[in-house]
Amino acid sequence: MPGPGEFEIIRDYFSAAPQGEGVALGIGDDCALLQPPPQGLLATSVDTLVADRHFPADADAGLIATRALRVNLSDLAAMNARPLWFTLALTLPESDPDWLRAFADGLLQTAREYDISLVGGDTTRGPLSITVQVIGTAQRPLRRDGAGIGDGIYVSGPLGAAAAALPLVLNRGAADSGDRQRAEQAYYRPQPQLQTAAAIGGIASAAVDISDGLLADLGHICRASGLSAEVRMESVPVATLARRLAGDGALELAATGGDDYQLCFTVPERRASALEALATGAVRIGTLVAAGEEPAVYPRLRGEPWRARIPGYRHF
Ligand code: ADP
Ligand code: MG
Q1: How far apart are alpha carbons 221 and 149 in whole angstroms?
Q2: Claim to verify: residue 220 and residue 295 sit in the same structural domain
């Protein structure tokens, strides 16, 4: 029996998505009609996840869906934007009802958790790929180019778990079922740092989410702000799972591994105590300094220059 067609897929799996704030017209017409909030700017971002590049093609469909939405929510967090709406462009090699059910359940459950509405999309046949576009509203956007000399550099939480998890997620390497489960959580269910972002909105000078690796993503703030970064590697918070799975290699994963989706942000010295008072759990890892010839990130471990063996992830 052939699986559901394009219109059945939209109707049976996606069109019942709850329609929240500002949705004048959701799924079903040529466009969604959306009412932007009266204040602030709209923030939008899009990310594509390609099978066998960003996740194994045979991965659990619910996990793929939740990750696709979470990585986009992380971009909103990095901008200090509140999630409102998202669209989904789904390319499927075949129409498999079980896969679609798991995917839609994972997606819509995550959407409820973060109070964001699915308002449209596109459904086509081809190699498995998932594109999510998010739209949010930003009252106090956190850009990459706002950092100043002397600002402290912070990370919102422990790093390295997702990179340490990757071999298990890809089914390489032996592990007990507990570790395998923790690895799946770390890789497929990153926690977009929306609360931390909202808390630091009036305090931080710049922010970026850590998708490609701490040192690589901090480099974006440096280049955008025209500054260099001195990083104390001994202060970088390393995830317990990274220590457990990678041992001595954990610090390297925390510094250069991607996919954790914590925030890296900068705070002017005069606001450091205000940040402390918020008790967000963020950890200071260094300081911004004047760029020499060009902006750069200088990691040091107990005063000695520290070099990564593997640089941050690059697509090309
Ligand atoms: P069009 O031909 O005008 O692009 P479609 O037939 O692709 O319209 O889509 C019909 C409606 O269903 C549109 O409102 C579209 O946004 C929505 N839609 C299509 N695919 C999805 C999907 N995967 N998830 C959510 N909405 C979808
Ligand atoms: Mg279409």
Answers
A1: 12
A2: yes
